[in-house]
Amino acid sequence: MKISSPVLALTVGLLLSNFTEASFAAPRPKTKKKAVVEKTDEPVVEESTAAEIEDTEAEASATSSTKKKKSKKADPNSSLSKRQNLKLELLLDAIGFTPSPTFGVSVGYFFTPNQIISGRYGSASGVISSMDEKILSIDLKSFWGNSFYTRAGFSKRDYDFSWDVYPSDGDGNISFETETLTAKTSSMGLELGLGNQWQWSSFTIGADWVGVYLPLSSSGTDEVVNKDGAVEAGLFSNVDDDVKYAKTTQMAFVRFYLGFAF
Q: Which helix H or strand E contains 258, and what residues bound it?
């Protein structure tokens, strides 16, 4: 049988088309697998990159922290640095008020560069009355920075009073001869204060800006006696007030001192 040319051409075309589809249909799954593998590998690469970034940030933070610590190092010329190798100090009061003028001397031991245990002996004189005050105290001075400090301790105070007065009788008659009256009392209590102390090599200067004395106990009486030992009562109220004041809370202001530390 004779086959026409168009039929033969169509038949050959169909065979070639089927062969081409069969040849290129098989490799397609491999392409999909490669895509899956690539997608699976991507998160691993991302996690590794994140970990490296975290390590880099941690190193940068550690370096920054080290630089800050170095920058916080005390100035070698500061009072804080000068106190580092000190053991003892000897101080002398220049002037102070309790509110009476005071004088004193103290010896301190550097328990640490920022803590000093000191003992002080001081005295004060009255402005109006003739008062002699003796002060014996021990306290702990704590520095909170370069020079600022607070102190707390215990104090014992003894008072000797004397007054030269013009006595009067019950009728209001005043004698032109003076009479000396005296009184003695003492107390123990808590002493608090704050101030600044600066250090230059071995030289020290400082000031108690404000302080307070809180009596916890007292001894002696409120009696005022004359030269014969007789009790004077009710005639000199201002004298009685002075004695009672010695047993009450007292403030101190601006006590300057200087000395040496080594």
A: strand 250-261
Looking at residue 12, what is its pLDDT? 58
- DSSP H or E run through 175: none
Contacts 24+ apart (CB under 8 A), 70-78: 78/146
Q: Give the domain range for residue 43.
A: 5-69
Q: Which residues contact 49 (CB under 8 A, 6 or more apart)?
A: none
Please tell me the total count of domains within the chain. Answer: 2
Confidence band of 71 (pLDDT split at 50, 70, 90): very low
Element spanning 201, H or E:
none
Do residues 91 and 261 touch, judged by C-beta distance below 8 A?
A: no
Q: Each residue of 82-96: pLDDT tens digit? A: 999 999 999 999 887
- Are residues 84 and 50 both part of a single domain? no
* Final residue of a structural domain among 18, 40, 69: 69
pTM: 0.64
